[in-house]
Amino acid sequence: MQDFLQQTLSGEAPHQRRGETAHLRWQWLYHGILILEPTEPVNQALVLSAGIHGNETAPVEIVSQLVNALLRGEKPLRQRLLVILGNPSALRTGKRYVRYDINRLFGGRWQQIDDCDEARRVLRLEQTLETFWQQGACDESRWHLDMHTAIRGSWHTQFGVMPHSERPWPPEFLDWLAAAGLEALVFHRAPGGTFTHFSCEHFGAASCTLELGKALPFGENDLSQFRAAQQALAALLYGEPMPAATASPRHYRVVQQITRLSEHFTLHMSPDTLNFTAFPQGTLLAEEGDKRYYVQQAREYVLFPNPHVATGLRAGLMLIEEGEQTQALPR
């Protein structure tokens, strides 16, 4: 198999489902799922995923380039690697998803929707991760990098979203995120249905959702914008030199979630509101019947505002920056 992405988009199984190079053994597990293992013993394991949303193509192209170099035998591999293109059906259509946003369905939440291809896909991904982690040594380090792009523009064009975790983040993981060129890190304070939360909660992986630029169709991405991320991934996979971090990412934490519960939901933000736009205390953010969302802290920043999500899903997150003085409105 010479091109993992094209094989995935074809919807057909490859004629050859396993093989090896001078550096590694590879096995095609299912559409968009590939495992690669170095011939030399290692104590690190990485899940590298992209294409959870089918219209977010830049990370898919980056992953494809990195993996194809491994499959052609051009590069060594320094850790066990599970590569996932998350939603092949959506990738083929260029849509965010076909029926359901699978990045809200992990941790068994797929059982709450109709039996469909996307529910079965999430189950397969959950089972694949479990098997992958179980096959490693007990002292193996576990990382999961899930690569996305955002629907809209952002004051921080490249940032990471960290799932809720009671464990401290490994310093080397945070150092890698800085070297990858991330300008900000957002820390969740509650569980969620994302792929990275699933790997963090259930398998103790250091995991991050990387947001790299804005969603564009295949062939329209300027991958040079993500050179630091590509170089940092090459360092992780091939053992090449790590790029130097130009700055430390700013840290934000989630303080409230805006949820759309019905057709009567209104988000009081313009369609061109950028991620990390700041709003002062007391601003009305959204309303739905008698329910109103206001800025509670002295200043809050919006992330992922989207009034068109399905009912019951997140229509936006509000953040504060770590280190800023805050004073919440009285309740």
Automatic annotation (TrEMBL):
Q: How is the cofactor bound?
A: Binds 1 zinc ion per subunit.
Q: Which residue range or ranges hold the Succinylglutamate desuccinylase/Aspartoacylase catalytic domain?
A: 44-236
Active-site residues (renumbered) = E211
* EC numbers for this chain: 3.5.1.96
GO MF annotation, one: hydrolase activity, acting on ester bonds
The AstE/AspA barrel-sandwich hybrid domain covers: 249-321
What PANTHER family does the entry give? ASPARTOACYLASE, SUCCINYLGLUTAMATE DESUCCINYLASE
- Identify its protein family: Belongs to the AspA/AstE family. Succinylglutamate desuccinylase subfamily.
Name the chain's protein. Answer: Succinylglutamate desuccinylase
